[in-house]
Amino acid sequence: MSQGIIRGWLRSLLIQASWNYERMIGVGVAFSSEPILRKLPDGVGGESYRAALGRASAQFNAHPYFSAAAIGALTKTEHQGLPPETMSRFRTALSSPLGSVGDKIVWAGTLPIASAIGLILAVVVSPLVGVVVFLLVHNVVNIAIRAWAFNAGWVAGIGVGNRLGAPLLQFGLKYAGPVTALALGLMLPIVSAWLFADFDGSAITATAVVAAVGILLARWLWPTLGGIRYGLIVVVLAALAGWI
């Protein structure tokens, strides 16, 4: 069983490789669960194996790092032989909390923090150091979260929801936002000074105007506009101005 668990965890690193609009990461969940499901009583190809694999491949949407908890917990319930209806409801119940926790800790926490550290080092030390440190910090957190989540899911099974109340996780939820704000607040002036080093007065004024317009439009049209759309609009306008 231990080999199956290790293989399942390693496969979970590729959980988004088969992402699609119909099942989200459901196929990735099944791919990660399959080595563990092989150890069901009737083995590969058996009725319980095929039924479990079918349930595992159903639609599922959660944060890709914390979804490892769902993989561990769902495969544990399959081995415990819980009723299919219970496992389906459990699967649905896991989606929102794992997505919410992952969004707050990773997308709004460790990822922008690692990005800010990398950018500061890229400016102060060298671009290579900045890239290496960013990849190192982000992926250490990435692997640590996936390992903890998978183990928590497999050990706790249907009670994995209680593991989301772990002190370290609650600490992350509480302080991810403030630490992100601090990191970005330190990064912005350092990187801005480096970017504007060769700008003359008119270029700095134009940049300030573009930034001010972007902030006003974002507050007025959010979330219709968004940062990506505004950035693309500015690039297009800049290209047209340069061509004219």
Give short descriptive properties of this protein.
244 residues; 2 domains; 76% helix
What layout of secondary structure does this protein have?
Layout: H1 2-12, H2 26-37, H3 47-56, H4 67-80, H5 84-124, H6 127-156, H7 167-195, H8 201-221, H9 226-243
Helix pairs in contact: 1-2, 1-4, 2-3, 2-4, 4-5, 4-6, 5-6, 5-7, 8-9
What does this protein structure show overall?
- Helix content is 76%, strand content 0%.
- It is mostly helical.
- The protein folds into two domains: 2-198, no CATH class; 199-244.
- Helix 1 (2-12) runs antiparallel to helix 2 and helix 1 packs antiparallel against helix 4 (67-80).
- The model has no long low-confidence stretch (mean pLDDT 90).
Q: What is the overall silhouette?
A: elongated
Computed structural class: mainly alpha
The helix fraction, in percent, is over 70%
State Rg: 23 Å
Give the count of helical stretches. 9
Any idea how many domains?
Answer: 2
Mean pLDDT: 90
How much of the polypeptide forms β-strand, as a percent range? under 5%
Regions with little confidence, pLDDT below 50 for 5+ residues = none
Main sheet overview: none
SSE succession: HHHHHHHHH
The total of beta strands comes to 0
Query: How far apart lie the N and C ends?
Result: 67 Å
